Amino acid sequence: MVRLGFIIGFIALLGALLSGLAAYRVHDQELALDRIALARAIDVHASLVQDRLTERELLARVASGLFRAPSVIKPNMLEPLRSAIYAFKTDFVVAGWIARLKPNELAAAQAAIAGAGFPNPKIRTFDDKPIDPATVTQPIDVLMDLEPRSDETKALPGRSYDQDPVLSAMLTRARVEKRSVASDPVPLLRGNGPVGVVVAAPVIPEGATEPAGFITFSYELASLMLTNDDLSLFSVALKDPRKDGSELVANDQGVVSTRLALADGPAPSATRTLSFGGRDWQFSYYAKTNSARRAEQTAVIVAAIGFAITAMVCGLFGYVAYNNLRLSREIQVRIGFERRLTAVIDELNHRVKNILAVIQSIVTRTLRHGSDIDVARELLIGRIHAMSNVVSLLSESQWQGVKLKGLFEARAIPHADRIAVSGPDIAVSARAAQSLSLLFFELASHSDEGLSLVGKHPHITANWTVSGEEGAEIFHFRWEEFNTSEATRRPDSDFGLILLDRVAPEALGGAAKRYFTDASYIYELTAPMETVVDMTERDRTEKFSQPVRPVH
């Protein structure tokens, strides 16, 4: 359960981190996309506006170029240009011809204006106050002709713009710089008319240094600014060149109004500077939507969805994992028991086969042809008893080994009370225990033959030692029967000789020798300690002997 809780907690933490990261990325992406879309829309708008302004300035230059040697007082001066003007652009408010009249040309100019059919041919100021020709000493700029002609525009010819606060400065600059010039924003046609700008292009006759007059075009600001509808991403404002801190705004109906740019108000998202009429105009773009707030709202939605999905995944995973874990535990326990049972059966079969093979060898060798049936029966019973005894000891230790001294304390060893045993009490492996048990029985069972020939009992010692460095220890076993000679000791049987000289040494991976001295019989066995103990067999036996526990 702790591990499951840790996994669910890790998934929840990972889901929360991924949700937060996704929300962060979505916030940045939304913000970047909005900014890119706004910047691109602004660039497109500014480019279109600049193209329109350039076209209209070009129109004034082309129109002025058509006047090669005009007569300033000729009536209907724009008559030859009407078709050309309308072919270029039709969105101007008024196109006019402003002649630069000398004092002696004023009377002829009035006659020309009257001859052109305008209702008020008198030369007058921009606010319709009459001008006395006798008071004029310098050339003045008078509107002589215009297009289109309507009831509202027919009253304009005859006005002089020398004293006009806006157009006078524009005409003076155009005359000095000898190029097209745009005016400040000004009401067109009347004082409360639509706000626009006037572009004046000087008309300079061939060989002259001063312009004879000016071709003018007036445009509403709304059309020049290309104002957008409610679906646009931004609103456009034109910085008012007449007053610092004020802006001109045109709505989608073309109505231009003035507003103050407050210091604590929203800053423009971008500004663009465009050129028109020999001057720079600054456009301010204000985003209609708050990109940061929109990105935050989108990020919150993404994070909430991520957290909800994480919670659902954690809950579902916890439910499924808990049921699977419970089922897995039951299956593992059953599989473990089945494996353990299989291992025990396999081990039992292996050991039973070994024991039966040993017993078969014991019986075959003991009951060989020509042997004494009484002696053979006694040896056969003793050998099987020794085998049974060691199997009992191994069963008690779950086949994980037998203490070496315990083999001598068993009842299966003849004359065990006369054997002096010494040596470290090591636990030998099951294979070594079986071989040593039979070995001890064979040695002890043949040590009693000389009792009737020698006046005292033989004395037997069995000792073993372990020597050598760690990892390369050697097991030394020594059996010595005192008061025994080759003449008095009962000869070993064929099975005993095979066991002493070949079977036991080979089972332990060592070597053995036996010999008589003047007063004793000696048997010595030397083997590597690793085969006597045999940890691999003990580990293998321990695995299937341990109880099976479920994996958490």
From TrEMBL:
Q: Where is the CHASE domain?
A: 129-232
Positions of transmembrane segments? 299-322
Q: GO MF terms on file?
A: ATP binding; protein histidine kinase activity
* One Pfam family cited in the UniProt record for this chain: HWE_HK
Q: Which UniProt keywords apply?
A: ATP-binding, Kinase, Membrane, Nucleotide-binding, Phosphoprotein, Transferase, Transmembrane, Transmembrane helix
- This enzyme's EC code(s): 2.7.13.3
Q: Which PANTHER family match?
A: HISTIDINE KINASE, TWO-COMPONENT SYSTEM SENSOR PROTEIN
Q: What is this protein called?
A: histidine kinase
Which species expresses this protein natively? Bradyrhizobium neotropicale
User: What high-level taxonomic lineage is stated for the organism?
Assistant: Bacteria, Pseudomonadati, Pseudomonadota, Alphaproteobacteria, Hyphomicrobiales
